[in-house]
Amino acid sequence: MTKKWWHDKVVYQIYPKSFYDSNGDGIGDIPGIIDKLDYIKDLGVDVIWLSPCYKSPLADQGYDISDYYSIDPRFGTMEDMERLIAEAKKRGICVLMDLVVNHCSDEHEWFRKACEEPDGKYGNFFYLRDKKEGKAPTNWRSCFGGSAWDDLPGTDKQYLHLFHKKQPDLNWENPEVREEVYKNINWWLDKGLGGFRIDAIMNIKKALPMHDYAPDREDGMCSIGAMLKEAQGVGEFLTEMRDRTFRKYDAFAVGEVFDANPDAIDALIGEDGYFSSMFDFNEAFFGASEKGWYDATLITPDDYKRCCFESQARVGDIGFLSNIIENHDEPRGASHYIPEGDCCAESKKMLGALNFMLRGLPFIFQGQEIGMENLPLTSIDEVDDISALDEYKVALNAGLTPEEALKAVSRFSRDNGRTPMQWSDGVNAGFTTGTPWLKVNPNYTSINAAAQVDDPDSVLSFYKELITLRKDPAYKETIVYGALKPAWEDRHNLMAYYREKEKTLLVIGNYQKQEQEITLPSPYKKVLLNNYHDIATDNETIRLHGYQVLILEM
């Protein structure tokens, strides 16, 4: 494998709207990110990824872009963005932005022109179809519920939107669309960006000609996934985009790739892959049901272990996965992957270490490093997330009571990861002096960065130790490039694996509150990391405390 500049990096994802508000309007902003760069630097992070802060009506929290060349005034100005890139660079931090080019906003000038002249140039920037005897062109269900087709204003046509109706899909079959995308990517890279996280990118290829699929719910529609599975040829678009943009700048590109075929791993993230890396969603998608969130199977510690090892085996040494516990689209990892009632500093540290030491790039989502948890909900009226609102209706239609539906929604709602960052135990968790755009988690008085920054036993301090270990010259080669070999795979509620290269490291996590014993195959040389102050050993036998995690040099 040719070594790349990004292989040994640690990435920190920032959701700008909820990170830090510098002007008291209740919305996080780019100057607020600049204010907190020293906190990020102190954590040890090398790269920050910003969720969208382009000009947008925020129908889907910025993933509906109305101008790819402008910063939304809610978040600041282009001068603020340029200052952020420069200030981050001074601290040795590179900046990634979100690339959202499967769709734009219905308020983008391209779509407005398509409405004015559907048979003209800009009509071909989108997927426009005539209604079929008053029905939608196909029975596809959008990712946010309801038909994936909506009326094109002022015409007898409809347009395709795989997501929100304010997010019309761009027609990548049109070379003019692709040219506009590449021009914009290179414009941003010229500004000094280190690269992009690429949103919903596998959706850019549609199965043509478009047709219906077998319905999978009583609404007579089918999941958009049925069409995407049939679509062929996305690699041609991705190869062209890579060669015209990222490769020219040696930029980092991480793809949001779902359901990747094992045979496609090399094409996706291999030596000559479309992307530098792609996210591992195996754990996040475990237990999903076509019926909806209410029918999802909750993940257990053994499921989590199996999902991680499946992903690692599938990729092997072909390329680098980007490993996550949570992000802006997922619930908080501590609440999702730790059994109910067991969230504590020790279990959060264990989960962090088990994920962080996997082969690949560690991604930390804002607040993960202090152990932020899901938001307790008392009413559906508190929910902002459009997908959660749809899933609440789905649950009610399936016969759940409002209380049961709310519980199902609260478990998976994207709002869980989007609540304001908990900086202190002050008003609004120190996020804003105004009224926060989204409810602050009431546990901010006990879970906040200020309380943890000088506490050597805090979750924050443990994450700093993990990052320091990854960068340690004595172990860096093994942690970054070493092979991963599972150990004690059949042991209930135990996740353990070796990382092997110049050194041999053993990562062991007791994934339960009860103690359990393991017998090592040989004595260990050194304890590199431990989320407890002691290690109970008797020769090669170790008695692990509840949720104890150890990183041992063998």
Amino- and carboxy-terminal Cα gap: 26 Å
Biggest β-sheet: strands ordered side by side in the sheet: 1-2-5-10-12-13-14-15
Percent of residues in beta strands: 15-25%
Counting helices, strands and paired strands, the structural category is alpha/beta
Shape designation: globular
The DSSP helix count reads 18
Describe what you observe in this structure.
48% of the residues are buried. The longest helix has 16 residues, at 175-190. Helix 6 runs parallel beside helix 8. By secondary structure, the protein is of the alpha/beta class. It contains 18 helices and 23 strands. The strands form six sheets. The chain has an eight-stranded parallel β-barrel. It has a five-stranded antiparallel β-sheet with strand order 16-17-18-23-20.
Summarize the structure.
The chain has 18 helices and 23 strands. By secondary structure, it is α/β, with parallel strands linked by helices.
List the helices and strands and how they pair.
Elements: E1 11-14, H1 16-19, H2 30-35, H3 37-43, E2 47-50, E3 54-55, E4 67-71, H4 78-90, E5 94-99, H5 109-116, E6 128-130, E7 140-141, E8 149-151, E9 157-160, H6 175-190, E10 195-198, E11 222-223, H7 224-230, H8 234-249, E12 252-255, H9 265-269, E13 277-279, H10 301-315, E14 320-323, H11 333-337, H12 345-356, E15 361-365, H13 386-397, H14 402-412, H15 415-418, H16 449-452, H17 459-471, H18 476-481, E16 483-487, E17 494-500, E18 504-510, E19 516-519, E20 526-530, E21 536-538, E22 541-544, E23 549-553
Parallel strand pairs: 1-2, 1-15, 2-5, 5-10, 7-11, 10-12, 12-13, 13-14, 14-15
Antiparallel strand pairs: 3-4, 6-9, 8-9, 16-17, 17-18, 18-23, 19-22, 20-23, 21-22
